[in-house]
Amino acid sequence: MIITLLTAALFMTTSINSPVLSHNGDPSAAKQRYVMVIHGGAGTILKSQMTPEREQAYKAALELALRKGYAILQRGGSSLDAVEAAVKVMEDSPVFNAGKGAVFTNEGKNEMDAAIMNGKTLGAGSVAGVTVIKNPVSAARAVMEKSQHVMLTGRGAEQFAKEAGLEIVDPSYFYTEERWKALQKVKEMDDNKTQLDHDSAVSKPSSGLLGIENKDHKFGTVGAVALDQQGNLAAATSTGGMTNKKFGRVGDAPVIGAGTYANNATCAISCTGWGEFFIRLCVAKTVSDLMEYKGLSVQQATHELIMEKVPALGGDGGLIAIDKDGNIAMPFNTAGMYRGSITADGKVEVLIYK
């Protein structure tokens, strides 16, 4: 299986060629066209500001997540199981702003959001503002499979997760010194400011469309998309939100159609970026619609959203996508995006910078 890298200014897309049928015309050969793509956030990620140890920690966590999901796909498991497994690996790693590595709110809490979607059935589930669920992505899946709802929030979501048999932890589990120091730093500068992940830049009041400035930051959301041997797509996204956020703010990650979407007829999408812009544009669903109704390729549709529509509103970020034929795209309009892919033959590629 061949991976072709198409790199332009601040744009990165990867295409995977469809497999060729065997000489006897056996269509089962097409089952080998399975693939997974993951991301760990986009933003001002510069090699000049990265220590070798930190870079290796990110790469190791991304590769572990890929291999965890790949093992499921390789043995014929579902894309849904694969994306959940991959995201759980990243939720358990303190280097990402999700699960264990979640940032702190203004109140000194770790509030997490997550979503998952089944491309075969269009079933979806999400949770928002949860504080004691070890793996929010699993809670999102439980909402999809064990309730009549799509989104649950706060204490209700936590009670549901407990009754569903998911692992509940003390809030102290999510404490990391680095994230706590980041909160104190933001508060010292201005308690009304918010910060994305652990980057040094801070948003502040302005006359912009959203009353915020958004420069030189890193989005720590994690996500995974996959195509399995049965041709089914799935997507999952998880995040710890924004440092010093107030008022129960929720971003795009748990909003189906904004930060997460999957449809077997088109593609699977997981986004990372300034959530308010992605919500306003319904980015994930719009990519799918452009493919379904305008006939655009996954590369063309994702480019239009990430390189044109999102920046036009003043937002930035990126996304990962896989279409129903196994072609993938990873566009971002920032300096870098933690990302990786694995193909049916087990070839792993992990990238950080543009």
Please give a handful of descriptors for the protein shown.
354 residues, alpha+beta, eight-stranded mixed beta sheet, four-stranded antiparallel beta sheet, 16 strands, 30% helix, disordered N terminus
Determine the fraction of residues in helical runs and give it as a percent range: 25-40%
The helix-and-strand class reads: alpha+beta
Compute the average pLDDT. Answer: 86
Computed over alpha carbons, the radius of gyration is: 19 Å
Query: Order of helices and strands, N to C?
Result: EEEHHEEHEHHEEEEEEHHHEEEE
Annotation, overall tally of beta strands = 16
What is the distance, rounded to the nearest whole angstrom, between the alpha carbons of the first and last residues?
23 Å
Strand content: 15-25%
Give a short synopsis of this structure.
The protein is α+β, with helices and mostly antiparallel strands and 354 residues long. It has helices at residues 52-74, 79-91, 136-146, 154-163, 177-189, 275-281, 283-294, 298-313, and strands spanning 3-8, 11-16, 35-43, 112-118, 124-130, 151-153, 195-196, 222-227, 233-239, 242-243, 260-262, 267-273, 317-323, 328-329, 336-342, 348-353. Helix 2 (79-91) packs antiparallel against helix 3.
